[in-house]
Design brief:
N-terminal domain of MutM-like DNA repair proteins; Helicase, Ruva Protein, domain 3; 2 domains; 5-stranded mixed sheet; 4-stranded antiparallel sheet; 8 helices; globular
């Protein structure tokens, strides 16, 4: 967490709120979240630039600057990008690691309670190389059934592990892998290469459907995830598998099974429905 729906929500919110703003100051209070830049160089290269666009790549929030540099934020488990117009609660401000002070009196904080996420500064060449090593975007038009079939056909690893491999397909983490596999009626432990054409088609439909529904609900909040305004996402109410171990499958009524054997993460599935 956050996965694709959460980072997409954050990026859209930030783009609507702060694009065309100027960064007048940079304050770093926890430099251990910085990557590829130190605090002094971050301040020197970013101060005085304007924000051209905020967007998402994989599970990253990307801030394009007028200098052609990019601030690249990977929130991981407890990170959030929060807009502060002066009323950010002290409980959130306490965990601010990097603050971008904008013209007009507002700030954007990278808040990270456990400081497992990162804030990087990359020039165009470095970002192109970095992003080029990532897999396909599942909500882009070029994520076709043929391309998904090629990804699956090249691996004998468990299906869930392939879905979460960011070198193949980006943005799908543990929550949405569980949900996609429940919706497509597929066993998470199935070798990816053994899916039939019909099963691949079901999976392709489920990936797009689940992710778009989660984006529309502004993500899934259990404990730490917040959007750029500090609000919770509502997709947790729509979860069919993740977090429901031992509860009845809403499709067949059988108790959902939980295991950590597939990839070391919590996997919840229906033993009867998912084959």
């Amino acid at each position: 967490m956050p996965e694709l729906p959460e980072t997409e929500t954050i990026a859209r919110d930030l783009d609507a709120a702060i694009a065309r703003s100027t960064i007048v100051e940079v304050r770093v209070t926890r430099s251990d979240v910085l990557r590829e830049v130190n605090a002094a160089d971050l301040r020197r290269r970013v101060r005085g630039t304007s924000i051209e666009r905020v967007w998402r790549r994989a599970k990253l929030v990307v801030i394009d600057l007028s200098s052609r540099d990019r601030i690249v934020v990977q929130p991981r488990f407890t990170g959030a990008m929060l807009i502060d117009g002066g009323g950010l609660p002290d409980a959130e401000r306490r965990y601010s690691t990097v603050e971008l002070v904008l013209n007009g009196g507002r700030s954007v904080h990278y808040r990270d309670i456990r400081r497992l996420g990162t804030v990087s500064l990359m020039d165009e060449t470095r970002f192109s190389r970095y992003a080029g090593a990532l897999g396909l975007e599942p909500l882009d038009d070029d994520f076709t059934l043929d391309r998904l079939s090629a990804i699956l056909g090249a691996s004998r690893q468990p299906l869930k592990r392939v879905l979460m491999d960011q070198r193949r397909l980006v943005g799908v983490g543990n929550i949405y892998a569980n949900e996609v596999l429940w919706h497509s009626c597929l066993d998470p432990s199935r070798p990816a290469a053994r899916l039939t054409a019909e099963e691949c088609a079901r999976l392709h439909t489920a990936i797009g459907g689940v992710l778009r529904a989660a984006v529309a609900a502004r993500g899934t909040s259990f404990r730490d995830y917040r959007d750029a305004s500090g609000e919770r996402g509502s997709f947790a109410a729509q979860l069919e598998a993740y977090g429901r171990e031992g509860q009845a499958c809403r499709r067949c009524g059988r108790a959902l099974v939980g295991t950590h054997a597939i990839d070391g993460r919590s996997t919840v599935f229906c033993y009867r429905c998912q084959r």
